[in-house]
Amino acid sequence: HVLNILNVRSSIAWIDRNRATEILVYVRDLSSSETIVSKDFSQNEELLVNLFGILKKKIEVFDLIVLIFEDILSCRKRVFPLHKFPGFVSVVDSLSRTQLPIFCRLISLVIYEYDERNAVMFFNKDQRRHEPSYFREVDMNHAICLNIPKFLSRLMTCIQNNMKMLFKRQRGPELQISDGAVGQLAAMLMIDANTPDQRDRLRHILQELHQSRQGSSLSSANAAAANSGSVQNEVNYLFDLMENAMASQENHFSPFTSDPATVSTNIVEILFVFCTLLSSKRRVEIQDELGRLGIVDLISTMMDNLNWSNCNTTTMTDETILANDYDSALKIQLLRVILNFCDRDSDNIHNKSRLILEEEIFAMKRNFCVPVLANHWYGYDHDCPIDPATLTREKFAQYARHLTLEPNPNQGTDSAHICASFVEFPKTPRVGLLTKVIRILILEPKNSHLKFWLASCLESFLRGSNLFHQMYIVYTGLFHFLIQEIVEEPETQGDSACVRQISYDLLGEIIKFNKAAFVVFNSIVTKKEQSILFATAVDNIVDSNVFFRGLCLSIEKFHAELKEETNAFVSKFVPPFIETCRLSLFTLNSQKELLRRMMSAVHVKNLCAENICCVNTSLIIFMIFHFKSELDDLLLSVRNHADIDGIKALNNFLDLLKFWAGYYSHKAKDAMSLEYSTNIKTATWRKFTHLLKKKIHYTLDQTSATQNQVLMRSS
Fold this sequence. Notes:
36 helices; mainly alpha; 0% strand; single chain
């Protein structure tokens, strides 16, 4: 009977408020408690369309309908196309500031791309057949949302208003509505101040409260209450709420929606929508627009007001963890926004640069980049030193080509001198968002569940190998901190092992194509620390393979630069870099062992988006040997190695290559990301993969032929 009522479009008009609420409460109880019912509802598109029609006409049941939509849409296998909701754009455009964050619950379910599904699904032809239509619907929903007038700016405003409520409430006393002036103000706030007379009355009360703030006395009836500190705090707090409410009357904004859990949830819902849009096909457009709207300053302010010292989950009771759920969800979504704001498969310097202040970059150039050049660049002229103000990224990159591990004889100082500039964390009058993320990461306890997200933000920021950005991370001391953390606790499990993986990924991004970072490593890391670092990396090759990939790519780049070098002085007098660098020596001597471990560490049955990077790193090592005309010998050494079953390893890698080809042919975004992070064209990857499969087949065939000959001779 309920479904019949909701499925008859003409019946919506005559359902009175109480009857509509009663029906919707019943539907909500069914959808939230019975999964089977929710799945049945989710396939009834007529029901969904008519629910949306009720939402348009009966705004008083808005919250209830959104909750029903959340239950139903979360059970759909396919995203619901927004164009089937009549007047969707106009409805969203009419929502108030309190309604829009709640409505984001519905929006998030129709714009989310389920990109974290197991990659093995691409072997399933039935699933692949539905992929194009699925993504078309998601893309259309993105377009509809982005066509809503001032959609992103309105969401930004909602976050700002909820931030004011959340952080003011956290700092201030618990709100207790009292008699006298506070009670009078509260009563006025409860009514709909839609007429000019009502608004004038509210302004008059505000003026009286403002005078009481300045020291004038309240009426005799309220004098006792005014002398109470708690009541006066309530007056001050409500005064601020009232100022916000007066500016929001046209949107029917309720300043009493200030419950911390509710306000925090509102912010989380909006941030989730931002995260989804920032990772969509239109992410470049969204990143630029949010950057222009001031998303970085907004996030920076939020990070200043959040308490980042309560994330040690091992010391929490169940009650404490429950109380911190909203706070934790807010922090994670905040960090995800930073991650997706930075993540792009092309140049994103203008947005990433918003995370670092100009004075921070200047301090880094003056206190770190110039000292590095003074100590390790043979072309440095101490009679005419480099001016930090004119040191560009391009100039530093050119100078860095001539860096050496030996200190400059003209300087006459030990190479450890370069460490003095970042023993303490950089101190500037102001700090940018990136510096705040780094500080929080360094101060977080080792078992904090936020360390992964903090490190992921930095890894996304560094992707693309901007030399100044890499040097800034080194300058802050985070480079040394990550190495020390791995060295101090090489054996980690669970969440800590996950953090170890992202720490290695972050180290790989810091050193990739960055000769100055190699110099710093040799200066600050002892041989004992290096031994532990590499032993841990080799034993946990799946976690550390991206780190080794960065080393391999960097060494090849340094080799290429050396071949291009025409400066006779440098080639004659500057000590060789690769042959003396501890990072380079270990990598070059261990490439074959690393490759054998990676070839056997991953199998198709457990392959996913998180460990397919092992296949990519293996392919890069194969490429390096191919360019040296040593690929055939490498394959033979793998086949004949005594410590592993070489034939089994080669067959396993053949399966991985087949998967790799299928995966990247359907994941254009991941293919672009791989090209961007390695500077190797996608066409080169595919061409070499095809060649490698032929080479492996030939090696295996030769093995079979040899075995047959042996059997024939023995018989």
